[in-house]
Design brief:
There is one protein chain. The protein has 115 residues and is mainly α. It has a domain of 74 residues. The protein is 65% helix and 0% strand. It is built from four helices and no strands. Helix 2 crosses helix 3. The radius of gyration is 37 Å and the shape is rod-shaped. The N and C termini lie far apart (115 Å). The mean pLDDT is 85.
């Protein structure tokens, strides 16, 4: 009769389980923190959401500008409004008065006094 196959001893089993455990741990770390892992995926999803919002905002602005272009091409009142608001133009006999948005601050009387 032949002797039974050698069974791994306790230390061999322990070593094998340790190696498998480390391999599993390394795989989990790579899955979470790796270049294409969970955290990278979350960052990419956040960036994609931000870009989708930016695209939506730009599409709305394009639509608004297209409507404004169409109005300027077809509506004389729109042209007059732009001329008055942006170019500060007036009809003959009218005066244009512009008020600065940020008036200059009055001089501080405390600083002008010498101690």
């Amino acid at each position: 009769m032949s002797p039974p196959p050698a069974r791994p001893t306790f230390s061999h089993r322990r070593l094998l389980m340790g190696v498998l455990g480390l391999g599993l741990l390394a795989l989990m770390v790579h899955t979470v923190f790796g270049e294409h892992g969970y955290l990278a995926l979350r960052r990419q999803q956040g960036e994609m959401d931000r870009l989708q919002q930016e695209i939506q905002r730009l599409e709305e602005e394009n639509e608004r500008l297209a409507e404004e272009i169409q109005a300027l091409k077809s509506d004389p009142r729109a042209v007059e409004r732009v001329a008055r608001e942006q170019l500060k133009m007036a009809r003959p006999g009218e005066r244009v008065i512009t008020i600065p948005e940020n008036p200059p601050a009055p001089p501080d009387s405390d600083k002008s006094k010498k101690p």
